[in-house]
Fold these 2 entries.
Entry 1:
Amino acid sequence: MKNKVILLVEDNSSDIKLIKRALEQNQITNELIVAEDGVEALDYLFGTSQYAGRDIRDLPTVVLLDLKLPRVDGLEVLKKIRANELTSLLPVVILTSSDQEQDLISSYKLGANSYIRKPVDFNRFTEAVRTLGLYWLLLNESPPRK
Amino acid sequence: MKNKVILLVEDNPSDIKLIKRALEQNQITNELIVAEDGVEALDYLFGTGQYAGRDIQIIPAMVLLDLKLPRVDGLEVLKKIRANELTSLLPVMILTSSDQEKDIIASYGLGANSYIFKVDFNQFAEAVRNLGLYWLLLNEPPRK
């Protein structure tokens, strides 16, 4: 489980820092791949552009996906993940500051496994990352590699 | 979220007891509805059989679903949950002792939100605790 990768799709640098720190503090030592926009996330998953040649059968254990992203937004990334046979079953957790009902419904309709609002409070955010990490890395069983 | 019920679909009485106790120990006080087979689960969700007349607009916070069940099995229950507009987005966690790849793949393929192995006694209580905290407190459920 330790070798499994977390794919974080997030463009806000202070959120990235916060998530990294929260994972470290909780001894969640899995490698964290950060994609700062939707294109980078898709490149990682499908081995294109800067990730050309990556063995794309090595899937992340979980994808933490922000919704508002440059270039390709989170819902579009989710759609592409679900449409590709290789990644169609991959656990995707939406991690967003959006509290719009429409984002919530769209995310679940497109097949998000879970939807989490980023707590504004620093300590609560850290606690949320801890719970989230432990749940998806230790408790949940991700689909097997194809 | 505190007032919402948890629907547990489980036919093994010792597992039911264990889950109840783990929820109580962790101050997860949501009402627990237990359905002991797939038919009972669907009756609860869709207000049929013994649950005729129940207000089916009131949906559970989450469903904990075993796979091997009498009468209608877990995958069939999941299929029916996803096929009905009322319950199509309802969080469903598979909670099973099956570690067969085909069950994992089928569960995710049919739209399970999460797949959890029942492990040994002590870890199981901890698993139920994490599961409750995650889905009842952290996760934002779809609203109707």
Note: Chain B touches chain A through 25 residues (CB under 8 Å).
Entry 2:
Amino acid sequence: MMEEVAISRDTRKVIERVDVLERLYRTEYTGMVRLAYTLVGSNAEAEDLVQESFVEVARRLDEIRKPGAYLRSAVVSRCRSVLRRRRVIALHPPEPPAGLASDAGELWDVLGRLPEDQRIVVVLRYYGGYRASEIASIVDMPGATVRSHLRRGLKALREELDS
Amino acid sequence: MTRFTDRVTRDLHQIADRSTPSSTAWDSIRTRIDEQTDQPPTMEVIVLSPDRNESPKRGWMLAAAAVAGLALLGGLVFATTRSDDDTVPADTPTATLPAEPAPDAQVDSDPDPVVAPAPDPTTVAEVAPEPITVTLTGTFTMTKEFKTVPSRSGLIGDQMWVADTRFDGDLSATAYDYGQVWNLPGGSSFEYTEGDMTATINGLGVGSLNYRGSAQTIDGVWSSESVIASGTADFEGASGTLILRPDPATPTDSSTGTYEWTITVPPKGSLQTVTATGTVVASDTTSEPGDREGETVITALHTFDGSMVGSGTSRATAWRTDSSVVGTGTVEFTGTIDGIGTGTMTVGDVFSYGPNGNVSIAAMSGGTGDFEGISGTGRYVQIDGTTWEYSFVLAAPVDK
């Protein structure tokens, strides 16, 4: 004999929301922390802002059509705020991670001196692998502006790294 | 991919691989979500009449538009038409912000306001279809330092200032300001500020606020008034004023004092937000000396393309500083906006044309037709002598 278990609509909705979030967590969390780390250079800060972004996604889940895209935008937006605050308050990039190969350490230093928008766009393009149009959507900028930041960022990197 | 970009990609992956995502992060996220859900509201709110014609939001957005007019062409035209006398009267900066907050920003527009317990922040839209206004007071501590650094919008002034402000009392917030000191001839100074804040406000929720305004130092005592330009998360569509009143006994670079905020948040779900991008081209430009010494008034036809299609006449007022040309202006836009509709609205901006670029920071306010009640912020970036790229975020009421 089968027992019929009644699940209320509200309960079902909660279960569905948790399911969506958990799937998002499994697919996106590690990648988002690494992306954030590449931008802000602190593991604790990266985890904190990615978790904050998950909370924001959870709060707005009913309004969001693409949770993954929203999460990426939220994470990058928070990274930008961190970089902006750091620039105006401290003006010093974090120390390079220990054990980094010399080339990567050099890139780290130069990357830290780029204006934050150039840094974000370069990292999204060459670490995240996003196209300019996708970056425009993530950072909420016109495509032409993204391409301009990319061009200037790469030029600055090349000048510093080749010198 | 080139050898160089291959190297950048490889090195970035090496850097990223140094991060160590926590294995218990899911538990932390769940806890954070639960904490937010359980947060009890404790403040009283005043439920406003939905009468848009007298809403604080409209009043202040119009005030903001009056403060920050549009004048894309100001700098370039000014540069070619300036007179030998660049002095600016001492009273010029006072035109940039109203001396006192608009009366309707402080009070309910409903003649018989209803004082109600604060709704749960997560269900504001369901229980209160009207805008919600709260008045918040408390104390602040501000650490302020002056540096020569580029602002977020790319402007560089003779001097930039940054301020890190912590608020206590009716809200929990941390704010970072950016400003530019424009030391105008004539002895007065005017600071244009732009700031971001992350805040938790009892009864309204959690989110960030972007604000803009001015601070002035008179007889060694400074004060500031800002207008909320936009908000995110629970503060989407927010408007209002932020007033800081420092204790005169505290130094400018390390102040304490009291604050008074009035913030209005529309019911959730009542706004549609769109991002508008494209270009604006200026033509039929004329310029003439203004009423005040050292002032130039420029008019032009601005034609918008892209997400916004239409045009409007702009009127700008510009002054020259030691290193830049600064000014304000407005354009009355008539046309269509993708995702919103057709109507008219006012787009204002504060601009600076200096050695490090020509950038304008804009604010929008409605409006007629589908733009009634619209608000927004954005930027113009110059592409060539007559063309600018615009990027605006606009919020318009869905149910007009």
Note: Chain A touches chain B through 52 residues (CB under 8 Å).
